[in-house]
Amino acid sequence: MKFVLEVELDGADWNEGTTVQELSRILRYWGGNLHHYDLSPGDGSAVYDSGYREVGHWTVAPE
Fold first, then answer.
1. What is the structure's pLDDT at 44?
2. Mind listing the pLDDT tens digit of every residue in the chain (63 residues)?
3. Alpha helices in the chain (DSSP H)
4. Residue 13: CA atoms inside 13 Å, Cβ hemisphere, count?
């Protein structure tokens, strides 16, 4: 299986100073929530930034 996290940087409303902060937050928040999922193929969720805007998604895919 493969865990895939995709975050759209071009469409995000972030500036040069907040991109690293937002990505760090996304990794902490969504990484901490993974225990709520079985992590089997097909699992996934939208990913939101600190302004609650959808900026990507994660999925579990068969390799």
1. 94
2. 999 999 998 877 788 889 999 999 999 998 888 899 999 999 999 999 999 999 999 999 998
3. 19-33
4. 7
Q: Answer for the pair 12, 25: CB distance below 8 angstroms, yes or no.
A: no
Q: What global pTM score does this model have?
A: 0.82
In terms of residues, how long is the chain? 63
Q: What's the token pair of residue 20?
A: 């690293």
Give CA–CA dist 9/56, Å, rounded: 9
Question: Tokens 């990484």 appear where?
Answer: 31
Q: How many CA atoms lie within 13 A of 30 on its CB side?
A: 25
Q: Which two tokens stand for residue 48?
A: 């939101």
Kindly tell me the number of DSSP H helices and DSSP E strands found in the chain. 1, 3
